[in-house]
Amino acid sequence: MRDLLIAFIVFGSLPFILKRPFWGILMLAWLGYMNPHRLCYGFMLDMPVVQIVAITTLIAMLASHEVKRMVWSREIVVLLIFIAWMGVTTTQALFFDLAMDQYVKVIKIQILTFMTLLMLTSRERVHLFVWAIVLSIGFYGIKGGIFTVLNGGVYRVQGPVGTFIEGNNELALALIMTIPLIRYLQLQEKSKLVRLGLAIGMTLTALAAVGSQSRGALVGMAAMGTMFWLKSRNKFATAFLIIVAAVVVTQVMPEEWYERMNTIETYDEDASARGRINMWWMAWNLANDRIFGGGFEFWRVLLFSSYAPDPTNIRAAHSIYFQVLGDHGWVGLVLFLALLWLTWRKCSAVIRLAKQQADATWARDLAAMLQVSIVAYMSAGAFLGLAYFDYIYHLIAVAVVVHALLTRPQLVATDPVKSGTEMSSPVASVNAPARR
Questions:
Q1: Global pTM exceeds 0.85
Q2: The pLDDT of residue 409
Q3: Which helix (H) or strand (E) holds 87?
Q4: Which of 10, 323, 351, 394 fits a disulfide with 317 by CB distance 3.0 to 4.6 angstroms?
Q5: Which residues on neighbouring strands pair with residue 398, listed in sequence order?
Q6: Mean pLDDT, rounded, for 41-58
Q7: What 3-state class would DSSP assign to 67?
Q8: The pLDDT of residue 165 is above 60
Q9: Taking a C-beta distance cutoff of 8 angstroms, is the pair 17, 31 a contact?
């Protein structure tokens, strides 16, 4: 029955996507983040639904007169250079076949990112896209939060098998990145009932992240919570939400959880932590030896014997920074960090611009919460190998688009969700303004 329902939704949406390709972008966000087909048990489990919807959306974009706009900015240029550099390092990869398979996956993710960038042409679309992300990942936040409460935090909250967020650590990262976006939606919502529901959703999502029992997530939660309060428009209400969430955690989580979290202070005695540090030294040594790094999937026995302090302790990167460093060398890491830093600056520029426009409070709220999500990604990501997670690249696209909406309002369609022919030209290109 579940398979039939998902099949009906996915395949039933295709005719509508052919008419309005933006709905394909929303469908791709739902499939990419919630992965509903991975919750099935029959024919839909391994159905290439993302590929089917992506191809349909691409065809619709090419055939439709609906507004499309490429926003050129420093962030997008750096992203393209980063993608190109990944291609160069793939040609020099120590394990070429494995690296090429991974590079193809990364290219597919980036194609979807640029498709999204082209179709986010108005505030309404940006808002709907954020809703799609929040509902998709929030499903696991609410479900995981309830699961944690009912089981007293004894069992770990996990994501759907065969996805980016399968593991407890990966799911926790996605959850804490989503909490600020839920807050943004709550600030824009007029219905008291929906605002209450979003507040409950934030609390349960935070509880689910804690219930993952991920120590990296705890670090990320601390960093995210601090920045969440600093960036909040209503610091009293935000502090109240944080306190409520903290009280719920202290009442729900068992003693075993506290014992596991306390191992952060004794990382040198923890086998998992020692393994990660060993891997990080291996990536460091490899990058110092090879300008191109090792290429994707570099963490293999042969390289550990040459570069790792302990050649017998073999692990994956478990850090976005050392993952990129090992994969693509120092050049790749500089590009990756520059992309994150420029996006942060872009959000700061949006906040400054929004203060000068009476009707741009929404942009200020969104930019501030995007910065909180970036902090969550960079802090929790220090202990997770999710450098190519499409979530962060979607947030970069959103930041770039919001900045363009404030600086070039004459290029915005009046109601692009319902109509695709408001502008005289079906494709508009926005160059990055000089002011940052």
A1: yes
A2: 64
A3: helix 74-91
A4: 323
A5: none
A6: 91
A7: coil
A8: yes
A9: no
